[in-house]
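Still learning. Show one?

>
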Amino acid sequence: MINKVVSGAEEAIKDIDDGKTLMLGGFGLCGIPENCIAALVKKGVKGLTCISNNAGVDDFGIGLMLQQRQVKKMISSYVGENAEFERQLLSGELEVELIPQGTLATRCMAAGYGMPAIFTPAGVGTEVAEGKEIRNFKGKDYLMEYAFEADFAIVKAWKGDTAGNLIYRSTSRNFNPVMAMAGKVTIAEVEELVEAGALDPDQVHTPGVFVHRIFKGANYEKRIEQRTVRTKG
């Protein structure tokens, strides 16, 4: 078996250069690859295209990369919690492609399955469909969307083993499994790293065949994007 374990985030992202296309797992601030994002900010790569459900918040997640003007284009579903994202979008500094959330997930999945495109009814008759091919199946129109082509997929898991098998915890499963399948190179950071064979195979969400590099992360903040507390009485 080829050794997939690397020493940390900086080694994991060492060949991510200017202009690359990245998938970044997570939903809101849940299950985001915090260590790799910090390493990308430190490295200072520019001109990135980022495929992610959202763009973090102003001072956390992908928002940190936006602050440093590292992102050229965002391909996302929801970006409403990031004021800097809004400013860059309205000023024309940032290219943005907004995609229905199900379409975003399915284009990731298609890339992992080796499918060139999908057909979806989502977006038909809206601005999303402008300039795209429409086909009719059994009397219903469907929009053709291409599978993503990402140079790297960067995901966060709860547990992983030295063979690259991954287990996600609860809500953090979100976009991580479909993105882990889809990158030409998949990088996984995990909270706990164990030896191959230590994980229950029935609990593995992402098989190690999809993962090229894995490391044990540290100092996870795991911020809550919007904290809601029930009042007594």
Q: What stands out?
A: The helical segments are 9-12, 34-43, 62-67, 83-91, 101-113, 176-182.
